[in-house]
Amino acid sequence: MKTYILKETSEMEAIINECPICFVGLNDNGKNPYVFPMNFAYNDGEIILHSAPSGRHQELIAQNNRVTVTFCSGNKLVYQHPEVACSYRMDSKSVICTGSVNFIENLQEKERYLNLIMQKYTGKDFKYSIPALSNVKVWKIKIETMTARAFGQKHRR
To answer: What is the pTM of this model?
Structure first.
C-alpha cells in the first residue's frame, strides 16, 4: 500500500466537505502548539469557524493570527497481509491548510457565515438575535496553501 499526493483542488475540497470536524493549530510563541477540534464550513477557498469571544485561542490569535487547519476522512483499517504488522495502514485522506484568521465584525456578515456552518450540519438557515451575534467570534480563514494525501491506497498503474 502506498501514500499518494493529491493535487486536484476539487478532490481536496471533497475531502474537506466529508469531514464533520477540523483541527485548528495555533502558535504558542515557541512553546507547545495549541491544537483543538472545531465545527466549520468551507466556502469558496475559505474556512469559516465560530467560537467564544474570549479564551486561550483568542489570546494566541491576538499574538499571531497564522493558523494550520487539518481535515481527515476515512478510518478503514487495511493491510496487505494479515500476519505482517507493518503492512497495516488506515485507508484515509487528509488535507492540511494554512492561512490567517480574520474576524468578522459586521452582524449581517456574521449571520451569513454562521448560516454556512449551520447549513453544513442541519441543512437549515437560522435567525440570530443581536446579543447572540455580538457574543460570538466568527473566524474567516482565506486558504493560502492546501496540500493533501491519500493513505493506505493500492498501487496505481
So the answer is: 0.86
